[in-house]
Amino acid sequence: MHPSRLVALCFITVSALLIAQVGVIEGVQFAPSTVFQLIGATFLLISGIYGFARYEVNPVVTEYGPMAYLLLFGFGLWAVGILFRLLTV
Fold it and tell me: Which domain of life is it from (predicted)?
C-alpha cells in the first residue's frame, strides 16, 4: 500500500474513533469541548478521505521513511489511547 494512502487511512480511523468517543463517553452533550472535538474530527475525516482518494496527486508522504513511520507511530498511540478510554468507560 502506498505510504500516503496508509497515513490517510490512519486519519480516517482516528477521526471515526474521535466521533465515537463523543457519543460513548460524553453522551452527546453540546459543551464547547465536545463541539470542538466534533468539528476537529469532521475536518480530520474530510482530509483523510481527500488524502485517501488523491494520494498520487497530493501525497502526504511519498515513501516509507522517517516521516511516514513517525506519523504511523503517532496515530497508533493516539488510536490506542482513544480505544483504551472507550473500553474503560
Answer: Archaea
